[in-house]
């Protein structure tokens, strides 16, 4: 005998919806026009999907992007129905959040995220260009909407893109490789 089982009865398992981890990408980068936050988020989502598959975890990964000309209805559609976990990503602009990420919270601020577990990540041009402020601002905004905010291992997820306007064709940054 292997001891008491932690498995739920089949009747309960069948009625429970598969939990969703939803990624919302607020891009592009205001400096280069590239979708760095989207690429970083796709890398995180692919790694999460791999781990869920290896561990046989029942999880659905949702990917959504903020339209450039989004209004309140479009932003509300990104956040509802509520996922189990919400992951928000955006870029850094002048030591703070770029306009797409700010617009997400300005237009979606009326949407209740009560009980949703939420985290955030940012892309930044360099190691000390304000990415941590973007993550902290996002977490604070998510908590203001009722979300249960968390960080990844008590660390802020900031992906340095080493943005360069003169990036030679055919070469790749570490972020490019992560997304691929």
What topology does this entry show?
Elements (H helix, E strand, L loop, with lengths): L9 H6 L4 E7 L9 H20 L4 E6 L6 H8 L5 E9 L2 E2 L1 H10 L8 E8 L6 H14 L3 E2 L7 E4 L13 H6 L1
Parallel strand pairs: 1-2, 1-3, 3-5, 5-6, 5-7
Antiparallel strand pairs: 3-4
Our estimate of the beta-strand percent is: 15-25%
Low-confidence stretches: 1-6
Over all CA atoms, what is the radius of gyration?
18 Å
Which range best describes the helical content: under 10%, 10-25%, 25-40%, 40-55%, 55-70% or over 70%? 25-40%
Sheet bearing the most strands, described? 7 strands, mixed
Number of helices: 6
Structural class: alpha/beta
Average pLDDT metric = 84
Structure description:
- The chain is of the alpha/beta class.
- The chain has six helices and seven strands; from the N terminus they run αβαβαββαβαββα.
- It has helices spanning 10-15, 36-55, 72-79, 99-108, 131-144, 174-179, and strands at 20-26, 60-65, 85-93, 96-97, 117-124, 148-149, 157-160.
- Strands 1, 2, 3, 4, 5, 6 and 7 form a seven-stranded mixed β-sheet that branches.
- Strand 5, helix 5 (131-144) and strand 6 (148-149) form a beta-alpha-beta unit.
- The longest helix is centred in the first third of the chain and has 20 residues, at 36-55.
- The radius of gyration is 18 Å and the shape is globular.
């Amino acid at each position: 005998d292997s001891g008491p089982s932690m498995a739920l009865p089949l009747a309960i398992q069948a009625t429970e919806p598969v939990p969703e981890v939803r990624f919302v990408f607020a891009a592009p980068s205001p400096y280069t026009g590239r979708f760095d936050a989207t690429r970083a988020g796709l890398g995180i989502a692919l790694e999460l999907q791999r781990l869920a598959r290896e561990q046989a975890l029942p999880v659905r990964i949702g990917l959504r992007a903020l339209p450039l000309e989004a209004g309140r209805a479009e932003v509300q559609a990104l956040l509802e129905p509520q996922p189990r976990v919400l992951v928000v990503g955006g870029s850094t602009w002048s030591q703070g959040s770029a306009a797409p990420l700010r617009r997400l919270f300005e237009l979606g601020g009326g949407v209740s995220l009560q009980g949703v577990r939420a985290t955030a990540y940012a892309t930044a041009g360099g190691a000390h260009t304000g990415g941590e402020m973007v993550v902290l601002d996002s977490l604070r905004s998510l908590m203001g909407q009722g979300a249960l905010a968390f960080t990844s291992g008590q660390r802020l997820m900031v992906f340095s893109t080493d943005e360069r306007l003169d990036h030679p064709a055919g070469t790749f940054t570490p972020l490019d490789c992560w997304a691929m």
